[in-house]
Amino acid sequence: MQENVEISIVIPHYNNNLRLKMTLHAVKREVNNAANVEVIVVDNNSAQSPKPVVEGFGFFFLEENRYLNSPYSARNRGIEKASGEVIILLDSACVPQSNWLQNGIECLGKNEADIVSSNIIYEHTSEKPSLSELWDSTFGVNARKSIEKREYAPGGSLFIKRNVFNTLGLFNEGIRSGGDYTFTNTAVKRGYRLMFCEYSVVKYPAKSYADLKAKAIRVGKGQIDVWRSSGRFWLYFVKFLFKPFYPPSPRAVYDAYASAGKSYRLNRSMLVRLFLFGWHLRWLQYYGNLSGLTGLIKLRLCFKK
Fold first, then answer.
1. Whole domain around residue 64: which residue ranges?
2. Per-residue pLDDT tens digits for 51-71
């Protein structure tokens, strides 16, 4: 979109104007008018367009109105217009902290990596977080663990070399969830190097119950595409049949909480509440799986006709 660009920051957005403004303020500070960096915000048909806000920062504004409710399609439109050899995918709710950009680029170069994930730190609305916030900040996005143990990056803030897109193509169009797993895991399997960068930090708000409920169902639906792309659909399907009847392990809940370095004391009552809350979310994800499978069956029946 502009000449002599080395880095393109692509920010998909949907109905999140207040947080977007915070993110753009932080990005502006990080970019500091550098001529070799461009910032592209892609709106996915928000109720109130953020165009005046985006252009007020001097950034580029695009719209994705064909594939609605799909951050991955919004990303695709930004990637298509991006000029940089490094493309940074930053969620509109992720607020970069000091030296986020510099540290991320250094991690990409020094480690000879192809994809680098930032360190996502959760924010709470108060000093005493709600049960939902506590669960999300304990069991939500953990980029280090995802990369080191499962060979994928969860998104939020990703630094990706352009040649990865040149080889793998863009994200699947129209999807709402699961795209980061599919793309980054495929990249690893194709020989690209995925790294975690501890000092490239973004802050993200821990979710409320309503948001966690919506996410559990959304992720459940998105998992069907992940199952299909993995080549192990029937293995996942068998696990799906029994998923809701196996509650999360109380010990696993406690260990995850402890390893997250929480400063809040976890007594027996809170442990039980977290355990039951996790089981409840598992049922919601199961419902999402059912919905996704139903959609897949309907799609195949339409093709047969």
1. 7-207
2. 999 999 999 999 999 999 899
CATH number at residue 132: 3.90.550.10
Angstrom distance (rounded) from CA 282 to CA 245: 9
Euclidean distance between CA atoms 88 and 96, whole angstroms: 12
Locate 194 and state its tokens: 């995925």
Q: Radius of gyration over alpha carbons of the chain, in Å? A: 20
Residues 173, 75: Cα–Cα separation, whole Å: 10
Looking at 207, 239, 259, the residue that finishes a domain is 207
Surface-to-core class of residue 143, CB atoms within 10 Å of its CB (0-12 exposed, 13-18 middle, 19+ buried): buried
The answer to whether 43 and 62 have CB atoms below 8 angstroms apart is yes
Q: Are residues 47 and 174 in the same domain?
A: yes
pTM over 0.85: no
Largest CA distance in the chain: 59
Question: In terms of domains, do 257 and 114 share one?
Answer: no
- Tell me the pLDDT tens digit for each residue of 28-42: 999 987 889 999 999
Q: Which are the contacts of 224, defined by CB distance < 8 A and separation ≥ 6?
A: 289, 292, 293, 295, 296
State the CB neighbour count (10 A cutoff) for residue 298. 9
**20: its two tokens:** 């977007």
Copy the structure tokens of residue 154. Answer: 């969860």
CA pair distance 211, 226, nearest whole angstrom = 22
Same domain, yes or no: 81 and 197? yes
Report how many domains make up the chain.
2
Judge whether 62 and 92 are in contact, CB under 8 Å: no
Q: By C-alpha distance, which of 126, 284, 304, 295 is closest to 205?
A: 126
